[in-house]
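Are you able to produce any protein sequence you like plus the matching backbone structure tokens because I've never seen that pairing?
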Amino acid sequence: MTTLSTHVLDAVTGTAAVGVSLTLTGPGGEVLTRAGTDADGRARLDADLGAGVHRLTFATGEWFAAAGRETFHPEVVVAFTVTPGADARPHLHVPLLLSPFAYSTYRGS
């Protein structure tokens, strides 16, 4: 069983990105769960991730629009692989550092 969390930070303001909507999809494209970031910019997505390629979609366009800010990316999609067997990690963390015209992500701990 593998679980997932994220942390979204606004690189321009240096603050947590509160209220970013998230959608997690599985290897077949099915929606596994939806969530939103909390007051600290964090979200735990309650789903048992099986092996394969999953996608975490951040609704960045909606979030920037709600703040009255322009953005180039209407959404950020981070695809990642869940590895089965002995190399499986019980928990994955996918942080997102966000600005209106760029973003970065990595496999966190």
